Amino acid sequence: MTLIDIIIIGIVGLAVILIFRQHIKQSKQGQCSCCANKNKKPSWVDQFQKSKR
Amino acid sequence: MRIALAGNPNCGKTTLFNELTGTFQQVGNWPGVTVEKKVGTLKKNKNIEIVDLPGIYSLSPYSLEEVIARDYLIEEKIDLILNVVDASNLERNLFLTTQLLELNIPVVVALNMMDLVNANQDVIYTKKLAALLQCDVVEIIARNGKGIDHLISTISNHSGLVSKLNCFSLEVTNAIYQIESYINHFQSQLHFQAIKVFERDEKIMDSLNISPSKRVSLESIISFVEKQLEDDSETLIISQRYDKIAQIIKESSQKGKIHTTLSDKIDRILTHKWFGLPIFFGFMGLIYFLAITSLGNHGIELMEKFSESIGGWAGSYLESLGASSWIIGLVVDGIIGGIGAILPFIPQLMILFFLLSILEDSGYMARVAFLMDRIFRKFGLSGRSFIPMLIGTGCSIPGVMAARTIESEQDRRMTILLTPFVPCSAKVPVFAMFISILFTRDAWVAPFIYIFSFIVIIISGILLKKTKWFSGEPSPFIMELPAYKFPRLKTLFLHMWEKAKEFIIKAGTLIFAIVVVVWFFQNFSFSLKYLSPEEIDLSILAQIGNALRFIFIPLGFGNHWAPATAAITGMLAKEVVVSTLITIGEVTTVEFSKLSAFSFIIFIMLSAPCVAAIGAMKKEFGSKKLLYSALAFQTGLAYLISFITYQIGSILLSSTSWVTPISLISNTLEEASESQLLSHDITFFIFGLFLALTFFIIFMNWVKGLKHQRVNSL
User: Fold this and answer.
1) Do B611 and A47 touch (CB under 8 A)?
2) What average pLDDT does chain B have?
């Protein structure tokens, strides 16, 4: 195993661990890692909520 | 004297502000936010300062503008509120008026657009309206300055008396009085704040620093009334407010002839009892055809070129650095090949969301919610459930979360369960890949998948309604429909860009991590030996796939271990189905017939969603039992429908090309080159349409701007 192998394994391995850790954490909270905290609604949904009777 | 100018957006507030202040106005920024405020002095009395608040529909914290306006009215010392009301739309405008009257600040109502009221032959009895609202009401036409002198004299000579209008029933009023005794007596807007506490307005509760013990007492007061009147406190306040407004309008105005607007005329066609839904499915079919089918070949060509060029460069560079062959395999085949298999579908997603945004921004999707209400109601859901499902076309997670807006517990649970059936943006690359390889001549497949998902939703709804968890009457669905408007180009591009950004972020993070793990399982045996491409059948992934593939044999895709493993890796993120099949397909022959591919698409679309969406479902259901039952239902139904599709298809299509197995990778370039002419033609057509649409929207906005300038100059 060469030095470049160790460097690549280190970087990729660490990135994979950190990404999965974050994803599991967010999944437990019911969030999507790519659209977390952006509970997007169409513009007219607010109007709907306001006018609900 | 300081006057705050408040009113709904587009009620003529700015025109009135300019009329009142002349040219003596300055523009400043609200602290901490970018919303502009305008401050000016009355042109006939420089001692009167006028502050123009953002256009708002209510004092509830639904939007940033409403929070700003509310904070300003509560925190700043205002001597009088000048409420501009669009007299041609009294019901909607008086909602804000009734809230302003509760602030314990003198209010003068400027009834604007009286010319429209007269043109519609409506009559408003201003004195009666003033008596009912318990404040001064002045008729004006801000556009031509009519009634402005009367308004100025009313403001200047105001007695300072505040309205004591009460919109609520005895039970709610008593509860509000009780709440008042719990919160600070020195607050000048005690009554308004008590109403907001009754509505459980968190921002107001936090600002009042209510202790936990007091919160418990307040909660018992609110819950008591909710139980008594069988509705939640916020809905009680809104509905009783509207009841009061209806009563005021009935006593103080008379309707003339009913005029039909352009929106009404369009609605007659688009929301027609019989044609409405076919038109909607026609639109969706066209959108899915344009975005997915026509661009499919282009995507697959790009995919090959991307992997070849970047992979080739990275491979030779790593080799020159002395990297081992398996490290080169990880980077080139695993990471670049895996991510590269998904990235070419970005243009399809961007076009899909651009076109969906047009429907949304124009106001059409709000109509579809009503159209859906008619169908959904038949199996016990209401049109409200369509909103989470619409959001689910982007991502199931915010879709599942949006089900919170549904009051009925049964409706909410059912919406959470059914929303993941809608093909989200992660599932789009899966069927886009198959369409680009196997269904290049079958333009109906992409639209059918979308329509089919709604058919499954309806059938599932009918079945589930018969169970104890979901039975019950659907909640009523009432909504003020926005007028049709030309979509703003900025909004459309913003939606498109956000979707592309999200996809790229996901490819660079989660998908990257998954393809690395999949590559490891695909290239190593259980004894951790690095395998050559010929030995792939000994890999961990192959062994797992082989152990499970018998489950999928009745569905038509169990003859090879690759689809079984793709279905499993797809649980982490649905896009990974594509990269798994492509990376395996590059070293071994993975075959699909059109029929087995169709069955596979159905299974991926309907089976349990990705783990992140399962997390959202768990949170929203609040019950593990319900979650597991929902996942079992989704996967069971996916299996059943795929099974029926494949088995019946095998009988009916036995002598057609639909049952001929085609290799996933070798067919890719062949099909792409064969249909190159068609692909280029359609691509040119799409971009032509895209450009034409862009210019049309710019042109209409320019015409609108010209009209606006003319109105202002008049």
Assistant:
1) no
2) 82
Using CB atoms, pick whichever of A5, A34, A49 lies closest to residue B502: A34
Q: Are the beta carbons of B505 and A23 closer than 8 angstroms?
A: no
C-alpha distance from residue B301 to each of B63, B305, B312, B336, B427 (Å): 45, 6, 16, 16, 20
Task: Note whether B512 contacts A5, CB cutoff 8 Å.
Answer: no
- Render pLDDT for B592-629 as a digit per residue (tens, 0 to 9): 999 999 999 999 999 999 888 898 898 888 888 889 99
Beta strands in B90-210 (DSSP E): 107-112, 123-124, 136-139
Residue B440, CA atoms < 13 Å, CB-side half-sphere: 24
**ipTM for the complex shown:** 0.78
Q: CA nearest A50 in B: which residue? A: B62
- Residue B341's nearest CA partner among B442, B437, B467 is B437
Q: What local confidence, expressed as pLDDT, does residue B109 receive?
A: 95
| Residue B676: pLDDT band with limits 50, 70, 90 | very low
Q: Are A8 and B330 contacting, i.e. CB atoms less than 8 angstroms apart?
A: yes
The CA distance from A7 to the nearest CA of chain B, in Å, is: 10
- Token readout for B359 is 């429907």
**Is the sign of the CA dihedral B342, B347, B353, B356 positive or negative?**
negative
Asked if B327 and A52 come within 8 Å (Cβ–Cβ), the reply is: no
Task: For the beta carbon of residue B122, count every other beta carbon within 10 angstroms.
Answer: 19
Give the residue numbers in A contacting B (CB under 8 Å), as ranges: 1-2, 4-5, 8-9, 12, 15-16, 19-20, 22-23, 26-35, 38-53
The burial class, CB within 10 Å (0-12 / 13-18 / 19+), for B491 is: middle
Contact B506 A23 (CB under 8 A): no
3 state SS of B106: coil
Give me Rg for the CA atoms of chain B. Answer: 31
Q: Closest chain A residue to B91 measured between Cα atoms?
A: A51
Q: Is the pTM of this model over 0.80?
A: no
Closest Cβ–Cβ partner in A35, A38, A45 for B387? A45
Instruction: Report pLDDT for B308.
Output: 73
From the candidates B510, B623, B624, which should be mutated to test the interface with A, based on the most A CB atoms within 10 A? B510
Q: Do B57 and A47 touch (CB under 8 A)?
A: yes
Q: Which amino acid is at B338?
A: G
pLDDT tens digits for range B511-524: 889 989 999 998 99
Q: At residue B19, does pLDDT exceed 50?
A: yes
Residue B596 to chain A, least CA–CA distance (Å): 31
**DSSP-assigned states of every residue in B213-259:** HHHHHHHHHHHHHHHHHTS-HHHHHHHHHHHHHHHHHHHHEE--PPP
State mean pLDDT over B108-113: 92
**What pLDDT does B124 receive?**
92
Question: With contact defined as beta carbons under 8 Å apart, do A38 and B401 qualify?
Answer: no
- Structure-model confidence comparison of residues B221 and B39, the more confident one: B221
The answer, yes or no, to whether residue B30 has pLDDT greater than 60, is no
Banded pLDDT at B32 (limits 50, 70, 90): very low
pLDDT tier at B31, thresholds 50, 70, 90: very low
| pLDDT for B564 | 92
Determine the distance in angstroms separating the CA of A28 from the nearest CA of chain B, rounded to an integer.
5
**CA-CA distances (angstroms) from residue B354 to A36, B285, B493, B679?**
21, 15, 7, 20
How many Cβ atoms sit within 10 Å of the Cβ of residue B465? 18
Q: Which helix (H) or strand (E) holds B80?
A: strand B80-86
- % pLDDT > 70, chain B: 85
Band (pLDDT 50/70/90 cuts) for residue B398 is confident
The amino acid at A34: C
Residue A6 Cα, gap to closest chain B Cα (Å):
9
Q: Residue A3 corresponds to which tokens in the numbers above? A: 């030095």
